[in-house]
């Protein structure tokens, strides 16, 4: 398949389009040349076939072809609310969550999180995560960019979630203390998930504190278990996404 590139501007068919610097650098790494076929998408849905017309060290121009409305999204919306993970774990899990079809990612500052972001660091990480999402969509064939929200603290986010409770959908809190399995809850709530989506709340290393779990339950979350084994924070959310794919038609 032709290499895929995200461009952060609306694409029109049947025009000659200068490509942004990031795409030019990527095309150079791939050693693309004039005449090579590429695919362009702008995150608004669908993609465009295109052909490179000119390829220089600092610029490139493509001839944009017709629009292909094909999509590869899940048949339901899923938001991953993830406690901030340390090291490169957050990068890894965001990338893989995009591959598994997540619709939105909400990074959360929680009591037990080993990562603490001041305003400057939070802004830089947010920009970095957005770039990761773009690259992951290029790789996996998605034409719509999942939304990555700025990091916020759990209390603030839960208050906002409570205010949106009337919008429907299912809210799941993944907890080793839960007594009901993810599969049982999803199968029981299948119509609601397909209609209103699902939000997955995952704690950081060490999990959520008991009072944080209680606050989530008060806001309408249902505690679910992933079985007898304790999964790492970077594994739990991805395991949930894979299970939802299998149970609800994503695979």
UniProtKB/TrEMBL annotation:
It comes from Cupriavidus respiraculi. Pfam families: Methyltrans_RNA, PUA_4. SUPFAM superfamilies: alpha/beta knot (SSF75217), PUA domain-like (SSF88697). Residues 19-64 form the Ribosomal RNA small subunit methyltransferase E PUA-like domain. Belongs to the RNA methyltransferase RsmE family. It catalyses: uridine(1498) in 16S rRNA + S-adenosyl-L-methionine = N(3)-methyluridine(1498) in 16S rRNA + S-adenosyl-L-homocysteine + H(+). Specifically methylates the N3 position of the uracil ring of uridine 1498 (m3U1498) in 16S rRNA. Acts on the fully assembled 30S ribosomal subunit. It is found in: Cytoplasm. Its main location: cytoplasm. Its EC number is 2.1.1.193. One of its GO terms (biological process) is methylation. InterPro entries: Alpha/beta_knot_MTases, PUA-like_sf, RsmE, RsmE_MTase_dom, RsmE_PUA-like, tRNA_m1G_MTases_N. This is Ribosomal RNA small subunit methyltransferase E. GO terms for molecular function: methyltransferase activity. The gene is rsmE. Residues 73-244 form the Ribosomal RNA small subunit methyltransferase E methyltransferase domain. It comes from the Bacteria. Keywords: Cytoplasm, Methyltransferase, rRNA processing, S-adenosyl-L-methionine, Transferase. It is an enzyme of class 2 (transferase).
